[in-house]
Design goal:
Strand content: 25-35%
Number of strands: 11
Distance between the termini: 40 Å
Structural class: alpha+beta
Number of helices: 7
Largest sheet: 5 strands, antiparallel
Strand order of the largest sheet: 7-11-10-9-8
Helix content: 25-40%
Radius of gyration: 17 Å
């Protein structure tokens, strides 16, 4: 089975990664698809979206054989009848699925210049200092990915990335950590993210073991 990597963060939390090289036709034999999933798949006209859809559910069934993904009103995924949180991300090359007993968020991005071009839209003045002269595209992509992970953790619409998801500090050497804050009308919470470079990809994730994100809802 074409499966790339699994990162266990602790006994309850893991990230599964799949480098997409297959077509939907290749993947269908690996999944015992439900009638609901078949209907959802048929509504996806783009082949890449179909491949992502199938790969995500194959990864899910490796850990939770009977589980099914549902979506809330904000289109955030959750597991039906399971006491486990999930988060899903896609890039040009990868699909990743994170699961945990705690609220979590994961993102994966291909390093490219797009994040740098739009940096002023999602970064505040104080955050621009984290974009270096040496690797500006990589740094901007890392910042964007971190905020995407926070947004997936929060599961709340109407969030302004530049003002409500704030990067407070980044450790580049040694253990790769990002300190960040979420600011809403209901709460101010601090969160620690981790990140990893995988070739030209950046993977970021956050786990909220204190369930602090619930204060924003």
């Amino acid at each position: 089975m074409p499966f790339d990597k699994q990162i266990w963060l602790d006994s309850d939390t893991a990230i599964q990664l799949w480098e997409l090289r297959e077509s939907p036709v290749d993947l269908l034999p690996w999944l015992e698809i439900t009638s609901n999933e078949k209907d959802e798949l048929e509504h996806l006209r783009n082949e890449k979206r179909q491949t992502e859809y199938l790969a995500t559910r194959i990864l899910l069934r490796k850990v939770f054989p009977e589980a099914n993904i549902r979506y809330n009103n904000n289109r955030a995924p959750f597991l039906h009848n399971e006491d486990t949180y999930i988060s899903i991300a896609h890039s040009k090359k990868y699909v990743c699925l994170m699961h945990s007993k705690h609220p979590c968020g994961v993102d994966i991005e291909t390093v490219e210049s797009k994040a740098l071009r739009i940096a002023s839209r999602f970064l505040g003045e104080s955050e621009l200092k984290y974009i270096s002269d040496e690797q500006p595209a990589r740094d901007a992509t890392l910042l964007w990915s971190a905020k995407e992970s926070l947004y997936k953790l929060l599961k709340k619409d109407g969030i302004e990335f530049s003002k409500q998801l704030i990067i407070q500090g980044i450790a580049i050497n040694g253990q790769r950590r990002i300190e960040a804050s979420i600011i809403t009308e209901k709460a101010y919470t601090n969160h620690e993210l981790m990140y990893e470079f995988i070739d030209d990809q950046i993977l970021t994730w956050v786990v909220d073991k204190k369930n602090e994100c619930n204060a924003h809802r």
